[in-house]
Amino acid sequence: MKIMIDAGHGYNTPGKRSPDGLKEYEFTRAVANYARRLLESYQNVNVFFSHSDERDVPLQERTKSANTLKVDLFVSIHANAFGSTWNDANGIETYVYVTEPRVSYELAQKIQRNLVTSTGLKNRGVKTANFHVLRESKMDAVLVECGFYTNPEEVKLIRSESYRRKCAESITKAIVDQYKLIKEKASSTSTTTPSGPKPPSTSTAKGLYKVQVGAYSIRENAEGLVRQLESDGYQAFITFEES
């Protein structure tokens, strides 16, 4: 299963920060990193990122990347806001597209239930929206709002690593349940060599043969492909060329 995790916004996105300066992306990227580690402990799961620490990735590029990679699930992680000053808006809410796709809606319900149970925050429910990442993604897709950074109490949680891990665990648990993922077995002590491509046959032809299986503008996606190839028994590496 291929999963695209989308950490909402970026370091330099205008606004999208608490009244005291906490950037939403600091929270969303942390949850995304925790979620990837958890998800990759399951069999046949490859996780890709739509975001980048180096630049703010446009929404169109995020969904295009997910569609090009033909991922099975798109999960967009956010923290919420009401205005730009401190207020008492609070709680958790999860979104699906306005047509309420069945699998997406079922997953959203599981995520919502897990987050509310684990955090103890107000249940604002599963809602529908015409958000770009939900509308333009050609796979199951959900968007999660993990509390309000304009709420002085909830922003304390959003700053904490324990809360970030808790959010990642709740989202992962829902995905595992929805798609019936199976935990990877403990590493074997077997010395069996993984099967890989057969060496090329001897040939008298002169020349240089090259094989490239992907090119990405986001390093995390390239790393995801390397992990997938290595899990299939192939050797893979990343090179970088400046444009």
TrEMBL record:
InterPro entries: MurNAc-LAA_cat, N-acetylmuramoyl_amidase_3, SPOR-like_dom, SPOR-like_sf. Its EC number is 3.5.1.28. Residues 186-205 are annotated as: Disordered. Keywords: Hydrolase. The keyword Protease does not apply. It is an enzyme of class 3 (hydrolase). PANTHER family: N-ACETYLMURAMOYL-L-ALANINE AMIDASE, N-ACETYLMURAMOYL-L-ALANINE AMIDASE AMIC. This is Sporulation-specific N-acetylmuramoyl-L-alanine amidase.
